[in-house]
Every structure is written in C-alpha cells, then in structure tokens.
Specification:
The structure holds 2 protein chains of 2 kinds.
Chain A lengths: L1 H43 L11 E5 L10 H8 L19 E4 L3 H4 L2 H4 L6 H11 L3 E6 L10 E2 L7 H6 L3 E2 L7 E2 L2 H32 L2 H16 L2 H19 L8 H25 L3 H9 L4 H12 L1 H17 L2 H6 L17 H8 L8 H35 L1
Parallel strand pairs in A: 2-3
Antiparallel strand pairs in A: 1-3, 1-4, 5-6
Chain B lengths: L1 H42 L2 H5 L2 E2 L4 E2 L2 H32 L4 H15 L2 H15 L6 H25 L3 H9 L4 H29 L3 H4 L21 H10 L8 H35 L1
Antiparallel strand pairs in B: 1-2
The chains are: A mainly alpha, B mainly alpha.
Chain lengths: 408, 288
C-alpha cells in the first residue's frame, strides 16, 4: 500500500517537473512573440498620426485648388524653401506664398479686436484667410470648429512609403515633423560596412594564425584575450573611442570634428573582431585532418593547403561568422552613439558625422513624449532593427544548415 | 626550381603577414586595456569607491552607481538563471527532435541576437509603461534578464551535452526515474560548466547600458535605492553620462577613467574567476 502511494507521488512529481520544464522551454518563444507584439503595436501607431502636429490643421483660402501636401512640402513651405504656389502645381491669383502662424495674428488685427478671452479669434482667422488668397495657415484645430469657411486641407496620416523613402529625419520640426528613415538606415549600413571592411582581414588573419600556425602555448594566450575582448562593455569601447580614436582622426585628416563615421567603424571593427575570430576559427579547425594531410602529401606546402583546402572547406562557417559580426555591428548602440557625432544627414564619405538606428533610438527616446508620433517613430526604427537582425539570423542559420549537409 | 622558390617565398611572406596582423590585433587589445587601467588606476581610491558623487559629478565617488549595478545584475540573474537552466535542461534532456524543438531553438537563437537597444524599447513598453513599474530596479532587472536568458540557456545546453550518455543509461538501468537521473546524476556533473557560464554572463549583463537607459537608471541620484521600485544609478550609464554630457566634461575626466576602470575590472575579475573555477573543477574530476 505504502509503496503504491510512493509510486503515485513519484509520478505526480515527475509530471509536475516535466510541465515546469516545458513552460521554461517555451519562455523564449513567448518573449519573442511579446517583443514583436509590443514593438509593432507601438510602432504602427505612428501611421495613425496626422502629418501635422496633433491638434493643429493646415488651412488655405477657400478658392485655393490645392488638395494635398506631403510632409516634406509642408516643411519646405514653412521654412520658405518653397515660395510660390506654382512650385506646388496650382494657380493662385497671387503666386507668392504667405505663411501664417497663430503668433502672426497681431500683425493683421489689434489685440482689442481679438478680445480678452480670444472669443473673436476663430472669426478673425477665417477673415484673414479669406482676405489673402495666397495664404497658408497653420492654426489650432479648436478655432476651426464652427462657421469656418476657409479650406482645411485633409492631409491624411503619415504614410509608410513617406517614412521609408523620406530623406529627412527631423522629428521635432513644426508644423510637420519629418520622419524620413533613409539617412539613418544609410548611416547604419555605412558605418557597419566600414567596420566589416576593417574587421574582416584582421579577423581572418587572427583566426588562420591561431587555428593553423600558432603553437599550442601561443594559442592558449590568444584565446582568453579574444574572450576578454568580447566581454568588455560597449560603453568602455565608446569611451576609449571618444578619448583616443576621435582626436586621432581629427588630427590625421585635419577635420573640424573627429566624431565621424570612420571613428564609429573603427570602434565597431574592434568590437566585431571577437565574434568573427571565434566562429571562423572553429570553422577552420573543423576541417578534417585527412584532407589537409592529403594535400600536403601531394606536395602542396602549408600555405597552399590553407588557401586551397582549409579555407574552401570552412568557407560557410567563416561566412556565418562574418554575417554575425555584421549583425553585431548593426545593433551596437552605446559605442556608436558616443563616437559618430549623430548628425541625421545622408552621409557621403566616412569622414562626416553620421547617425545609426540604435543610436537614434538611444539618443531621442528620453526626450520623446510617451505615446506621441516621435515616440512611435522610434519604435518603428526598433521594428526595422529587429527585422534586419532577424534576416541576418536566418541567413546564418541557412548557411550553417548547408554546412551540415555538406559534412553529411 | 623557380616554382619551388616562389612557393616557399609566398608561404613565408603570407605567414609573416598573418603574424603581424595577429600581433596588431592583440596589441590593440593591450592598448585599450592598458590605457584604461593605467589612467583609471590613479583615480581609484577608497573614497572613490565608497562616496557619493559631488560637485556635479566631478568629484567624490561612485558608490550609488556600484550599488545600482549590483542590484540590477543580481535581479536579472534571479530571473534569468532558474528559467534559463530549466529551459536548457528541457531542450537537451527532454525535448525530442520534432519541429517544436527546432522552433524553440531558432527562437532562442533569435532572442540572443536581438540588439540590446530593442530590449530597452521592449522593456520600456512592457515593464515601465504597460505594467506600470516605472523606471525602477525591477523593470531594469527584468529587461536585463531577458537579455541574459539566451546566454544561460545556451551555456546549460552546452554543459549538458558534454555529459556522456552512458551515465544516464546507468542511472536509468538502476531504476531511477528520469527526474532522479537528471537531478542526481546529470546536473551535478554539468554543474561546474553551468556555473562558469553563469559567471561570464554576469560580466556581460553588468556592462550593458542600452537596455537600462529607459527602464531603470537615473542621471544622478543623491541617495541609495531603498526598494525595488526605486530608480538607481548604474556604472555603464554613469560612464556614458560623465564622458559625453556631464556639466563639465573635462573636470569629470578622472571620474570617467575611474568608472571605466571599475567596469573593466569587474569583467576581468569575473573572467579570471571563471577560468580558475574551470581549472579547479577539471582537476577535481581527474583526481576522482
């Protein structure tokens, strides 16, 4: 009897334990799903926002035929870069655009006319707009609620296509914040590309040296050093870059500021090295000894064996390492934030300040009001980053699965 | 004859090039370490480690940042260690080879490669805003824990993989259940490797900045945290702040060197400790 109970209890505990394990095992999947859910739901909120700031509208004279304006056009108009209606493709009796913001109202009427509690303001705004056929006004929505006869432009929401193809990132611009992701994505790719071009030759050299040439003793010194290099916090690399590499670049290239894409690339290259070296070395070491010995027996020397046998055999492993290194470089935040200067302009050379996706998020999230368009735009950047790393990961997995097939 | 000469010349020049490049890489690392250690060592004193920052963080110490980093790291490990180890056991001991396991593995790999700033965004959205923890130790710890989770899982799996299957068979043949086998035979044997992996992941977590930037840390706090819902200062963020946007960057340079030194020292000590532990355990296994 006792024994039976013992058994029953045992099986119960066993089942409980297995359930616990299963739950723990699925935690990572749940987290990924949660990340996707939160990132995308916050991010997609951006595309429900109006092009202009919340609570404001853009209005024109009721006879004006203009129907639609892009965020870029609105910004250009209010920055006086577009000065005539012809440039926007409409004919207005007087061609020059007059910009009107709420503060300008006192240029048209006196304060007494507006009234102590601004009670006449809606009517006056309407009047001013109707008096000036060539005016474009940026005014609070609340003043246009009743009896407003001027034309309020239906600008619609921020479009995904504008976001992806926009060439300006200027999230605090008024009246229309600019969420153009092109300069930031280009900056990210630019810096990462530079980093990988620097890291690749050095990473390969070290992995070949330590896998094929170094004595056992030397290998025992190199390996922990590389491990240590991987463990140092990114903010320390950033600090080092800021104090040593940035001034160095400024001096060598005779620049006004040393905080450039090149500084970011160098720091990222140092940080990507351990990933590349570790994985490439493992791949090189996995070459079967028999293959190498066959090559040597045929009269090839060690270098020819490395170039013609070892590297071709382990090329997929090496590629996986390089791709993972790129992934690390793209996602790196702090070091890049500290040394690249963070100017959101499309970079033309590596000697200009650039800004990357992670650095933008880190630099601006603290200042963006929660739930606003800017805040949501940063989440969209997070989504883009997430998708990029996902693609990189799938590529790596594909490469290594191909490798497994080859071995089999 | 000509060909042979060229062949050996090629080889020796290529090998020299490889050697030089390798030494450049190792040299750069020593430069970075040396630079931080030499400059930072002068800033270190008992007061530096045990006092509050003073004069707009240009004088005084970094005690609140050290305490904050300790809290955040410990909190993240309390979360990540049990779940990570259990998950690793599941993947290696219990799960079969079906598509579910493949999916879980892919997900774990993916989680491990997500950039840390994305964790920061997620932590801010879920823990700080949705769950309403605010900027606090608990929100930061959970975010860091998510980051550490894949590392712990992978370490556990690797450690378990190294245990020969005959031990499991032996235990099962003696009538032990799977649970008993796992807890009494497999885990004790894998324990050293799991622990060393854990120590290394502590080093990793303690230096992360991006995930805690928007979930836990404050620019400057004059007091120590009193509950898990308090904001804290943290070493990596402190270094970032005083080296880029402090009130007087030049004046706080010494403080920055000191902070960088402490950060590097943490990683170095944990690395050495993990290595020593590994050696100790492997010797023990040999003598047994």
């Amino acid at each position: 009897m006792n024994r039976k109970m013992f058994r029953g209890k045992k099986y119960f505990i066993e089942a409980l334990w297995e359930g616990l394990l299963k739950i723990s095992g699925s935690v990572t999947s749940i987290i990924i799903i949660l990340i996707i859910l939160f990132l995308f739901s916050e991010g997609m909120g951006l595309f429900k926002n109006n092009i202009v700031e919340d609570g404001y509208v853009v209005a024109v004279n009721s006879k004006n035929k203009i129907e639609n304006l892009s965020p870029q056009q609105i910004k250009d108009i209010f920055d006086s870069k577009i000065v005539s209606w012809k440039e926007l493709g409409v004919d207005v009796s007087e061609d020059e655009i007059i910009i009107f913001r709420l503060d300008d109202v006192t240029n048209y009427v006196s304060e007494e006319e507006i009234g102590e509690n601004l009670e006449n303001l809606p009517k006056i705004l309407n009047q001013i707009l109707e008096d000036n056929p060539n005016m474009i006004a940026f005014i609070p929505e609340s003043y246009t609620k009743s009896n407003f006869s001027s034309k309020i432009l239906d600008l619609g929401n921020i479009k995904i296509s504008d976001f992806l193809s926009g060439k300006e990132w200027f999230p605090t611009a008024s009246p229309a914040p600019q969420f153009g992701v092109v300069p930031i994505v280009l900056g990210t790719l630019w810096v990462s590309l530079g980093a990988i071009l620097i890291a690749l030759p050095f990473g390969l050299a070290v992995s070949i040296y330590s896998a094929e040439l170094a004595s056992n003793r030397l290998h025992k010194i190199i390996k922990p050093i590389i491990e240590l290099l991987a463990g140092i916090p990114s903010v320390v690399y950033g600090f080092f870059g800021l104090i040593v590499i940035v001034p160095l670049i400024q001096k060598v290239f005779n620049l006004d500021v040393g905080e450039t894409g090149l500084a970011g690339s160098i720091v990222l290259a140092i940080m990507a090295l351990p990933t590349i070296i570790t994985i490439a070395e493992d791949a090189l070491r996995s070459t079967p000894r028999a293959m190498k010995e066959a090559s040597l027996a045929l009269g090839a020397n060690k270098w020819q064996t490395i170039v013609k046998v070892t590297i071709p055999y382990s090329i997929s492993g090496i590629t996986a390492g390089v791709v993972l290194g790129i992934g690390r470089a793209i996602g790196e935040t702090m070091a890049v934030l500290m040394v690249t200067g963070n100017a959101a302009v499309i970079p033309h050379t590596l000697l200009e300040p650039v800004r990357t996706i992670p650095a933008t998020i880190a630099a601006e999230l603290g200042e963006a009001p929660k739930g606003g368009a800017h805040y949501e735009a940063l989440f969209v950047l997070g989504c883009i980053l997430f998708i990029i790393t996902l693609i990189i990961n799938l590529v790596v997995e594909y490469i290594s699965s191909k490798n497994k097939n080859k071995v089999a | 004859m000509e060909y042979r000469k060229r062949k050996s010349l090629n080889q020796s020049s290529a090998f020299w090039l490889l050697k030089i490049m390798s030494f450049i890489v190792v040299g750069i690392l020593f430069c970075i370490l040396g630079f931080i250690i030499i400059n930072g060592f002068q800033a270190i004193s008992w007061d530096f480690l045990t006092k509050m920052p003073e004069d707009g963080m240009t004088k005084g110490g970094i005690l609140p940042a050290i305490i904050g980093t300790l809290c955040l790291t410990a909190g993240s490990m309390i979360f990540a260690f049990p779940i990570g180890v259990l998950s690793g056991i599941y993947l290696n001991e219990y799960a079969g080879k079906g598509w579910v396991v493949k999916l879980i593995r892919t997900m774990t790999n993916n989680l491990g490669s997500i950039p840390s700033i994305v964790f920061g965004l997620f932590g801010m959205s879920l823990f700080v805003n949705t769950l309403g923890f605010g900027d606090s130790i608990i929100a930061g710890s959970l975010t860091l824990g998510l980051l550490a989770l894949p590392v712990v899982i992978r370490t556990t799996e690797e450690a378990l993989k190294q245990i020969d299957v005959s031990y499991r068979h032996g235990s099962l043949a003696l009538g032990a259940t799977k649970l008993q086998t796992t807890v009494k035979v497999v885990l004790p044997m894998a324990f050293p490797n799991i622990i060393t992996g854990l120590i290394l992941s502590i080093g990793r977590v303690s230096g992360e900045t991006a995930p805690i930037m928007f979930t836990a840390v404050a620019y400057f706090l004059p007091m120590l945290p009193s509950s898990i819902f308090d904001q804290v200062m943290a070493l990596p963020y402190h270094l970032y702040v005083i080296s880029t946007s402090g009130t007087d960057i030049e004046a706080s340079r010494t403080m920055a060197y000191g902070t960088a030194f402490v950060l590097v020292a943490i990683v170095l000590i944990l690395n050495l400790f993990a290595n020593a532990l590994r050696r100790y355990f492997s010797n023990k296994v040999k003598t047994n």
